[in-house]
Amino acid sequence: VCTLCSLHREYVRLFDVTERTALHKHNTGRNCHKCGGELRDSIVHFGERGKLAQPLNWAGAVKAAEKADVILCLGSSLKWTPKDALATLKIHGKCDDVMRLLMDELKLDVPEYDRSLDPIFSLAIPLCPGEENSHSRKPIKAAEIQKLPEQTKQSCEQPVSGGWFGKGCTKGRKTKR
């Protein structure tokens, strides 16, 4: 994101833009194609407060949260946070496994991922000449077809039990340590 442009300019990339960034250090080492200002990542690290209006859209998130019956927070490092006591239910598990069980319980189909329909490929902004060596991580390519190795595929098919069935489940308030 370029924060110098009057309307913050967002740069979607096909590679990990955070390899040169860290807690409170968000400059990526690349520059805005329009104004030349330094581009920043939009990651919010633990202990930080997200300051970008976009793409984070805090105002929209707060409005939606006020109307919501339930909020699912997925991902993260699954470490303890000061907000844990506010959760009604906290499940430690792999997101894909937990969501598969939840969707089964709700009797909802999970559509198969179709890489050709992924909007990231149409939203991505290519690097300018001279920026090609500004990252070392391999970019994802639209034409790439990624297949799971046979052993990974088998382990994905093993049954899992979600936290709400007892394993990995935390409900209500925790006792103080």
TrEMBL record:
Sections of the chain in a coiled coil: none
GO cellular component terms given for this protein: chromatin; nucleus
Assigned keywords, A-Z: Metal-binding, NAD, Phosphoprotein, Transferase, Zinc
One function term, GO molecular function aspect: histone H3K18 deacetylase activity, NAD-dependent
Signal peptide: none
Alphabetized Gene3D superfamilies for the sequence: SIR2/SIRT2 'Small Domain, TPP-binding domain
Cofactors: Zn(2+)
Binding site for Zn(2+): C2, C5, C32, C35
Domain Deacetylase sirtuin-type residues, every copy: 1-131
InterPro entries (UniProt xref): DHS-like_NAD/FAD-binding_dom, NAD-dep_sirtuin_deacylases, Sirtuin, Sirtuin_cat_small_dom_sf, Ssirtuin_cat_dom
Domain of life: Eukaryota
Family note: Belongs to the sirtuin family. Class IV subfamily.
PANTHER family: NAD-DEPENDENT PROTEIN DEACETYLASE SIRTUIN-7 (PTHR11085:SF1), NAD-DEPENDENT PROTEIN DEACYLASE SIRTUIN-5, MITOCHONDRIAL-RELATED (PTHR11085)
The protein's name in its UniProt record: Regulatory protein SIR2 homolog 7
Species of origin: Aquarana catesbeiana (American bullfrog)
